[in-house]
């Protein structure tokens, strides 16, 4: 059973998400928070498998809460999925830098939201596919997440780690990467566990951002 904390200051949104999650046999809502301070306290007490956070909340915003739950200095992080009404917004970029495992727009299809919760709980980052190129383009243009340059890639990552990073950037899950490389899923996870600290990032999603920022992979041409 995947244990989920939902934090949103809008009662209707919070009730809708709770109802949606509760309909799934493998998902369980263990807490509902109405502001950032309550969300942080409940997350630390309940230790959910996934914390679903709104970005804009009273008390503390979702980015501040996320940084406290899954930021670079957190020894035992709690995976965070951000649900936002904004597409290209500083809050979204801040969430990526805070170490969140994924984010979706609040108007995403119900199946997409529950699937994202499962992906985050499984250690797979997720991002709203309608926003991927726009967000990555803007993030690469505006921000520097980690100062490792392209010229140092061969020193930072092993050949296998570079292969996995390329496949991550294509949006593949651990299972899909394992099939592509003809290895066990546990092997992929082991490589990821060693790779993320080398890049100075906390999540698969941040690793993908790093790959684009450092020109390890190029953004696809607009269509």
UniProtKB/TrEMBL annotation:
Residue spans crossing the bilayer: none
Entry-linked Gene3D superfamilies: 3.40.50.2300
InterPro entries found in the cross-reference section: CheY-like_superfamily, NreC/VraR/RcsB-like_REC, Sig_transdc_resp-reg_C-effctor, Sig_transdc_resp-reg_receiver, Tscrpt_reg_LuxR_C, WalR-like
UniProt domain Response regulatory: residue ranges: 3-121
Residue ranges of every copy of the HTH luxR-type domain listed in the record: 150-215
Modified residues (4-aspartylphosphate): 54
Record keywords, A-Z: DNA-binding, Phosphoprotein, Transcription, Transcription regulation
Record has Transcription regulation as a keyword: yes
Pfam families membership: GerE, Response_reg
Taxonomy, superkingdom: Bacteria
PANTHER family: TRANSCRIPTIONAL REGULATORY PROTEIN NARL-RELATED, TWO-COMPONENT RESPONSE REGULATOR
Protein name: DNA-binding NarL/FixJ family response regulator
Classification of source organism: Bacteria, Bacillati, Actinomycetota, Actinomycetes, Micrococcales
């Amino acid at each position: 059973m995947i244990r989920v904390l939902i934090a949103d200051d809008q009662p209707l949104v919070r009730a809708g998400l709770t109802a949606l999650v509760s309909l799934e046999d493998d998902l369980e809502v263990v807490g509902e928070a109405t502001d950032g301070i309550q969300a942080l306290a409940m997350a630390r007490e309940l230790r959910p498998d996934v914390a679903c956070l709104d970005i804009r909340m009273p008390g503390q915003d979702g980015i501040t809460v996320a940084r406290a739950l899954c930021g670079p200095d957190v020894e035992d992080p709690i995976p965070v999925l951000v649900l936002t009404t904004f597409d290209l917004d500083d809050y979204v970029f801040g969430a990526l830098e805070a170490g969140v495992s994924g984010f979706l727009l609040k108007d995403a299809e119900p199946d997409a939201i529950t699937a994202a919760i499962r992906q985050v709980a499984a250690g797979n980052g997720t991002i709203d596919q309608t926003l991927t190129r726009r967000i990555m383009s803007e993030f690469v243009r505006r921000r520097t997440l980690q100062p490792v340059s392209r010229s140092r890639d061969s020193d930072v990552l092993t050949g296998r780690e570079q292969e996995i990073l390329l496949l991550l950037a294509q949006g593949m899950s651990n299972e899909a990467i394992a099939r592509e490389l003809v290895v066990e899923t546990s092997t992929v996870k082991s490589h990821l566990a060693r790779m993320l600290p080398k890049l100075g990032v906390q999540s698969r999603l941040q690793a993908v951002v790093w790959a684009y920022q450092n020109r390890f992979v190029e953004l696809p041409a607009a269509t």
